[in-house]
């Protein structure tokens, strides 16, 4: 395996990490209107991701930086062609981050309600648009001979891409609700398990439709294997949640998202951005990658620092592994 191919899969791994980790963040944010019956519920829900949400978001920064360094042509075409969609994602992430920090700064319920709405929007919009973006990358977009995107924003809003967006939206929602069940107690935990069961049924149907469409149109052997793993894991996650084993359910959701994202990269390989109008204009691993020297330096850097990042993040989750109880929220309010 040459270094360009290696970095294609490293970029895939980084996006898997982002979708797995920030994915349940998005799901937790989207769950607020469905699970937050009172202020204590809402604080309990938000506190499940309070110590980790900003750390989870750094994965997209690392993924974007790696994409820029390893595949500058891919990065340039993607960020110029998908500019408006990525700008909306950025604005949503900023609004969500500000809301986490500011909602508790004043006691008025209306103040909190405004920031709660921003949390929901700032979680749902990226969850939808990331799926739309990756579906468009897999199916291809119109490119000229200079690898410039020649379509419009509305060309990206097509049935296949919208189905991809709805799939990621539902996957992240179910992932997040399962995390709420894993990290809370009492009535909120029970309601989260119930919501995960209901959402899981819809997610299974939509995700299966998207994976089948992808496989029939763009599938490779590797894609079909990974899609089968994702499908089995998603069903296993639903069964585990139905039996009250939210820990196993969450683990299976991690496998589902990881296998699905790796599957999309497998369907894309060896292209990085196919040209839908003329295959000769497509960006591939070969014509989009940086020089051998750049990739060598990046490889040594990744070898040193990536394990340290993984160890640090694992330690962070271990430190904050306990459930967020309703009693602890109520005690904090009255302290």
UniProtKB/TrEMBL annotation:
InterPro entries: Cyt-d_oxidase_su2. One of its GO terms (biological process) is aerobic electron transport chain. Signal peptide: none annotated. Keywords: Cell membrane, Electron transport, Heme, Iron, Membrane, Metal-binding, Oxidoreductase, Transmembrane, Transmembrane helix, Transport. GO terms for cellular component: cytochrome complex; plasma membrane. Its EC number is 1.10.3.-. It is found in: Cell membrane. It is an enzyme of class 1 (oxidoreductase). The chain crosses the membrane at residues 6-24, 74-98, 118-140, 160-183, 195-216, 222-240, 252-273, 293-320. Its main location: membrane. GO terms for molecular function: electron transfer activity; metal ion binding; oxidoreductase activity, acting on diphenols and related substances as donors, oxygen as acceptor. It is a multi-pass membrane protein. Belongs to the cytochrome ubiquinol oxidase subunit 2 family. PANTHER family: CYTOCHROME BD-I UBIQUINOL OXIDASE SUBUNIT 2, CYTOCHROME BD2 SUBUNIT II. This is Cytochrome d ubiquinol oxidase subunit II. It comes from Agromyces atrinae.
